Structure formats: C-alpha cells, structure tokens
Amino acid sequence: MTKTSYPLKLPTSVKTAAQRLAREDGVSLNQWISVAVAEKIGAVETASEFLRRRAGKAKPSDLLPFLENAGSEEPAAEDKLI
C-alpha cells in the first residue's frame, strides 16, 4: 500500500473527540482518521451507486407528471423555512 502525507487542520473539538475515540479503540489518531475517511468514502460511493441504479435512465422531465399532481397547499408550520 502506498502512503502519502496530508497536513490536516481540525477544529480543536473535533481533534479532541477523535483522539478520545482512537484511544478507546486502541489505535493511533492517524490510523483512526484514516479508517474514518475510508468509511466515509465507502458510504458516499455506495450511496452514489445506489442512486445511480435507482435513477436508471430517468430524465428530469420524467418527474413532471408527479410535480403537476402536487398540491398547492402551504407547508406545515414546522416545515417552513425561517
């Protein structure tokens, strides 16, 4: 496995939490961050592939019938933007 360095700047609170979790896992901070980044890459790539499969050959214009049937009522109070 080829390795490369990357200077990483973290907010103090994030680094402190990561250090604590690395210590609890019994690994170095560097190893813990590497695994966390790898997990995030896996999750994003998996989600991207899932959505790509679900969308298939759909085009934005395929959604127009759904939008045309949408109601015109106001959103509920808890759903409104402030």
CA distance, first residue to last residue = 49 Å
Radius of gyration: 22 Å
**Largest sheet entry:** none
Q: Would you list the SSEs in sequence order as H and E?
A: HHH
Shape: elongated
SS class: mainly alpha
Q: What's the number of extended β-strand segments?
A: 0
Q: Provide mean pLDDT, rounded.
A: 92
How much beta, percentage-wise?
under 5%
What topology does this entry show?
Blueprint: H1 12-25, H2 29-55, H3 64-68
Structure description:
This protein is mainly alpha-helical and 82 residues long. The protein has a domain at 10-53. It has 3 helices and no strands. The protein has helices at 12-25, 29-55, 64-68. Helix 1 packs across helix 2 (29-55). The longest helix has 27 residues, at 29-55. The termini are far apart. The model has no long low-confidence stretch (mean pLDDT 92).
